[in-house]
Design a protein that fits this description.
This protein is mainly alpha-helical. It has a domain of about 110 residues. Helix content is about 80%, strand content about 0%. The protein contains six helices and no strands. α1 runs antiparallel to α3 and α3 packs across α5. The model has no long low-confidence stretch (mean pLDDT about 85).
């Protein structure tokens, strides 16, 4: 065997090692993408729960119920509290929307969360806050929310 043959064998082995490395790298990227997607879904679900938990607090719940009946009867402080709480709700919905549009949110999670958001958004208090603050959100998200089929909101 001469040096040319040995060099050729070395090149073949080197090329094989590169191919194996690329296959390994592709597998690692696939795993990392899956984990990243799962983390995004977890964060969206957490934001969803946290934005809803706010409305379970006694004071915000009282403001929300009264705002559904007569938004204009709220004091400035109550209006501010409602707007702040609703903004967290809308921001969480917007984040889920953007993640879904980017393909990072499983459709089952998106469909479930979106149904819930849509139902709650149908409440008169949320409708009023949306009118007041929708300009603070992403253009595509605003279009999406503005075209949501409203449900009949009922606490009972």
């Amino acid at each position: 065997m001469n040096w040319d043959a040995i060099g050729a064998v070395g090149e073949i082995l080197g090329a094989g090692a590169v191919v194996i490395s690329l296959i390994y790298l592709a597998a690692q990227i696939r795993i990392q993408n899956k984990e990243s997607r799962m983390a995004a879904m977890h964060e969206i679900s957490l934001g969803f729960r946290e934005s809803l938990d706010k409305f379970g607090e006694r004071e915000i719940a009282d403001i929300f119920v009264r705002a559904n009946k007569d938004f204009d009867s709220l004091t400035e402080v109550e209006t501010l509290r409602l707007i702040t709480s609703a903004a967290a709700f809308f921001r969480s919905w917007e984040e889920a929307y953007i993640q879904n549009e980017g393909g990072r949110l499983d459709s089952r999670i998106w469909n479930t969360i979106n149904r819930y958001y849509t139902t709650i958004f149908s409440a008169p208090a949320f409708q009023q806050v949306w009118i007041l603050r929708k300009e603070q959100f992403d253009d595509k998200f605003r279009d999406f929310v503005d075209n949501v089929d409203l449900k009949v909101y009922n606490l009972k």
